[in-house]
Each structure stands twice: as C-alpha cells, then as structure tokens.
Amino acid sequence: MAGLYSRGELLDAVRRWRRLYGCAPVRSDWDPVRARQRCDPDLAAAKAGRYRSGQWPSADTVRNHFGSFGAAIEAAGLHPRPGGVDVRWSDEAILEALRDVAYEQGCPPRPEDLDDPPGELPGVEVVVLRFGTWQEAIAAAGLDGE
Questions:
Q1: Of the candidates 97, 91, 102, 92, which has an alpha carbon nearest to the alpha carbon of residue 143?
Q2: Crossing angle, helix 124-131 and helix 91-105, to 10 degrees?
Q3: Pick from 39, 59, 12: which is nearest to 126 by CA?
Q4: CA of 78: how far to CAs of 8, 34, 55, 103, in Å?
Q5: How far, in Å, CA of 80 to CA of 92, rounded?
Q6: Which residues contact 97 (CB under 8 A, 6 or more apart)?
Q7: Assign residue 25 a region: left if phi > 0, alpha if psi is -120 to 50, beta otherwise?
Q8: How far apart are CA 19 and CA 64, in angstroms?
Q9: So where are the chain's domains?
Q10: Are 15 and 74 spatial neighbours (Cβ–Cβ below 8 Å)?
C-alpha cells in the first residue's frame, strides 16, 4: 500500500536508518520474508526484530513509490551498499568490536547486541557477510569457548 507513506516520509525513514545503523538499508532489512530466504538465520532474526519495531516501512511500499529499493536509497542521497557490505569495517575491526562487546557484557555478543548503541558497531549484516555465519564470527574472535 503506497498510500500509508509519502515519498518524503520514505526518504526520511531511509536517512533515519542510516543515522541509526551507519549504512543505508538493503531490501532484506525491510522485508523479513526475503531475509529468511536469503540470509543466515541469525542475520534474518536480527533483521526481522528491527523491522518488527514498527518504525520502518515495508520494502514493497518503498518499491511501489520508487520503482526499486535502490532507487529510493539513491533518492535519499545515499549509495546502495554493494552486495550489502559496509566497507568501513575491516575483518579485524569487526573482531575487535565483538571482543569489546563480550568484555563489557561478560559473555559473547548476540546479534541484537550490536544494535546498541546504534551506528557505533558493525551491523549484523556486515559480520555475517564477512564471516559466513554469526557463530563463525564469534569463533574467529576467540569467543566461542566462553
């Protein structure tokens, strides 16, 4: 239903996502079904949790207004993430961030732990795309034995 949001509200949502998570959204961020079909289960669960907060429009609504999800990202003045990867985070920086969170919590982080504080940690998508699965990233950080 394209009528629930104006184009301006959709662009504001894209920009708000960028401020919160440090990168433009990808279609699976606002489409939990697509996330379950195409993403690692940990990543799909994290995406669905963020989407279920109720503050994001559906990917179909965005596509209905702009013709494609990528066109909306560009209309918001952002660049679509190539392959969904946030290139600001090196593998070692991701592992260090995971270790820092584990140190602060006293246990290995879960996907949802990377959302707080927003934008200061690599996104779950970045971790899973770089390491294959959430558990592989935890193991690479040396946190699977805790």
A1: 102
A2: 120
A3: 39
A4: 15, 22, 20, 34
A5: 24
A6: 89, 114, 121, 122
A7: beta
A8: 24
A9: 2-39+54-82
A10: no
120 alpha-carbon distance from chain centroid: 13
Closest CA to 42 of 122, 133, 113, 138: 133
Q: Please write the tens of the pLDDT for every residue from 67-85.
A: 988 889 989 998 776 555 5
Residues with Cβ within 8 Å of 120's Cβ and at least 6 positions away in sequence, in order, are 22
Residue 136: half-sphere exposure toward Cβ, Cα within 13 Å:
12
Determine contact, residues 56/13, Cβ cutoff 8 Å.
yes
DSSP 7-58: HHHHHHHHHHHHHHHSS---GGGG-HHHHHHHS-HHHHHHHHHHHTTTTS--
Q: Read off the pLDDT of residues 90-131 as tens digits, 9 standing for 90 and up.
A: 788 889 989 988 998 899 998 888 765 555 778 777 788 778
Q: What is the CA radius of gyration of the chain?
A: 16
pTM, entire model: 0.58
